[in-house]
Amino acid sequence: xxxxxxxxxxxxxxxxxxxxxxxxxxxxxxxxxxxxxxxxxxxxxxxxxxxxxxxxxxxxxxxxxxxxxxxxxxxxxxxxxxxxxxxxxxxxxxxxxxxxxxxxxxxxxxxxxxxxxxxxxxxxxxxxxxxxxxxxxxxxxxxxxxxxxxxxxxxxxxxxxxxxxxxxxxxxxxxxxxxxxxxxxxxxxxxxxxxxxxxxxxxxxxxxxxxxxxxxxxxxxxxxxxxxxxxxxxxxxxxxxxxxxxxxxxxxxxxxxxxxxxxxxxxxxxxxxxxxxxxxxxxxxxxxxxxxxxxxxxxxxxxxxxxxxxxxxxxxxxxxxxxxxxxxxxxxxxxxxxxxxxxxx
Length: 345
Hints:
The protein has helices at 7-15, 22-27, 38-42, 120-128, 156-165, 183-192, 197-211, 234-258, 270-277, 283-286, 325-341, and strands at residues 68-70, 79-84, 131-134, 175-180, 220-225, 263-268, 290-293, 315-319, 322-323. It is an alpha/beta fold.
């Protein structure tokens, strides 16, 4: 007698040949059939062998900074609106379709990105089948008026103005707003002084308040940080703590004053940088062969593929200070672990 596999089993068999994130696989689970895990699918061959070797440190949206998901159901998200700097910049800053994430030598930047492929927020959008509207700009800080030394004259306030001027009509229940700032504020503070790092934190909170108000009425926010990229200072840590505590206050105030529920997730990318650069567990545990940049032939205006390394997939940085596409992939994986594992009841 011939044995036939059900369509569900055949579908899972097909999925097992793909390198899909765990939360995506969960969408395809079938009663009575074990959900496949990334390790079952392709082990450490996924993402050219680069993988997370650290885990989120979950905690409540109160107290000290931790990884947390307070109310975001990623399966409901159909649109992601992203604000940020070069780590989130997909090569276009008006929310329109992004250029293909392909390197065309001698230009080292894939479609205008500061890496050799998709940035982390693109990976997340692709994983969940969401439309990405990206307003991030390379070199952006929170507010240029606070940082006279800023090299690139772009900031969160300008990105917000672009977004608001478009009068987008996005469903608050299915739209996630991703906000990733701090790196350039921290770098500028080395010249202009650290006093305004607290003000930078408040800019982020104020802009979230604007997004949560009419006409946008945003309800779900993902906030991330890696201000020092492996370096920690009391002033920088205090900035992150102010942001984190402010999110809890915004959530509590919204609920108390108008019965409106604001949903926040916070992902601390510093755990990746600390794990790679500080020797615990170290870069080799992630699959990297070097913590250096593969490409060093860069100016403020451009980076070229001249004299690039022979193994860009396994260098932590693609260009100075900017992770490779594999690094962006594990950043996306980290966020998705936070959304799955750090759910605040």
